[in-house]
């Protein structure tokens, strides 16, 4: 029997946990009944322009015929097969495509089933690689304050231990080494680099690798930093024999204006994690790319194999739609389109600076951020945006947008107006 909207929402409120939400006093949710292009259709028939790309994943919007066809075609063949001892064309072709697109030297591919899992795998890779080189004492990671890498335990351990959302778990997490957060502008890089290098010198004998979100820290505060910092990290990693890990789950596939955030610095990491936009928001999938040297180090460890293997590793449906998604992205002028979106964000958000509660307005690629001088009232801000016909999901002291790449100029202007309005009431 079909349930009414009210019945569905009532059961949801009583039984379903949503991300970062109280079970005893949950925040309201909206019931989605359809989605197409950049618009979400709600149960009451209204539509909202999606300013979030469904947490930065749906870069081509919703119900895209190319992605639909790829998914249906693969479902007609087979939906899943275990990856242990078996392989299939979608996985092989996706790996080939990722290697073609990736920064130079990244040629080994591990297909994970979520962004958090990919970071867990990357951490294990770095430690296992050091074991293979005869350095089992190197078990810690060097990272930077303000970072966010996921919600599982290994991921939480390299998130910001004080200001991050996982600080309550600090006592039970592995203790890693945290350098200061990179500066927002180039004039602060020399002082930051000196502190980062000193910390690396001090802990080099204990540290297996460096892990960061390159160029833009995401859920830790939407904090961009100069590309020169990545070159510093590369030099430090080379000097001490550390594995350099770039978490490009949020930044990859053009989001910051270049295909990879690493490209802005002209450096290649030893390990790179990708996810979110990989399947265009259709299915959960992530990948970890490594150099041949990292692969050799892992294989030289006592196990002789990488000790990880998810049940849904290399899921054919996800691989097929990911391959179609990447072809869709690269077949057009993606860089020009991202530059267009960036210009629209810069222009559309400029007026938010007139709000006395706004402490900063910043853009990078297809990312627009308005930072307030107080924590956002998420419900009030989302409601204000929805009144203008836009879906936003603020957090901390930030009201931000990461729109789908297919967002046209009119809808982009509407998104910017909604961000500005939400900042006024939040």
TrEMBL record:
Positions bound to pyridoxal 5'-phosphate: 115-116, 247, 310-311
Reactions this protein catalyses: (8S)-8-amino-7-oxononanoate + S-adenosyl-L-methionine = S-adenosyl-4-methylsulfanyl-2-oxobutanoate + (7R,8S)-7,8-diammoniononanoate
Gene Ontology CC, one term: cytoplasm
InterPro entries in alphabetical order: Aminotrans_3 (IPR005814), Aminotrans_3_PPA_site (IPR049704), BioA (IPR005815), PyrdxlP-dep_Trfase (IPR015424), PyrdxlP-dep_Trfase_major (IPR015421), PyrdxlP-dep_Trfase_small (IPR015422)
Positions marked as site (Participates in the substrate recognition with KAPA and in a stacking interaction with the adenine ring of SAM): 20
Keywords of the record: Aminotransferase, Biotin biosynthesis, Cytoplasm, Pyridoxal phosphate, S-adenosyl-L-methionine, Transferase
Protein family (similarity comment): Belongs to the class-III pyridoxal-phosphate-dependent aminotransferase family. BioA subfamily.
Functional summary from the UniProt entry: Catalyzes the transfer of the alpha-amino group from S-adenosyl-L-methionine (SAM) to 7-keto-8-aminopelargonic acid (KAPA) to form 7,8-diaminopelargonic acid (DAPA). It is the only aminotransferase known to utilize SAM as an amino donor.
Subunit text: Homodimer.
Protein name in the entry: Adenosylmethionine-8-amino-7-oxononanoate aminotransferase
Origin species: Nocardioides szechwanensis
Lineage of the organism: Bacteria, Bacillati, Actinomycetota, Actinomycetes, Propionibacteriales
